[in-house]
User: Fold these one by one.
Assistant:
Number 1:
Amino acid sequence: MALLAFEREGHVRVQDELRAATPMRMLALASELQGVVRKAATSPHAHCVLQSLIEKMPLGQLTFIVLELAGACVEIAKNRYGYHVFCQLIH
């Protein structure tokens, strides 16, 4: 899933899967992005997947996203895609 999230058509497939996923499957899909959250946040395609995860997952399961973004908040917030990820976190 992580590789598909970065692709033009792949990210749409991943988002479709997230919409239909059980909570356990969603957690499994989210875990595949661990370690690449900063890259995903500034990706023209993967940022949409991150936003979907943030919208659908319980707050307690999003800790890895927040921790991976820590230390690069200003840089990511200035990015045209990263900005949207932060907006979704705040929302």
Note: The chain has eight helices and no strands.
Number 2:
Amino acid sequence: MKKPQAMRKWRIHIIRKKAQLLGTVEAPDADAAIKAAIKTFDVPVRDQRRLTAQPLEGRDAAAFSGDCDGCCAGACPRRAPA
């Protein structure tokens, strides 16, 4: 019997001239995170190949609330307290 994979938080970026943060999703692996991001953020078909997933680990994963849109360069007032 297969053991269920643990869910992790992933930071999703879209690559343009510079990477732009779309937000975070929870998924067991990077491929599943990108699929979840496509649904969550309504990414158009033409941009789906431009998505990247970066795992949030340690303090980042615990402190990141998941609803930051990157507008404040990491000093988000919507961030959960560490």
Note: The longest strand covers residues 19-27.
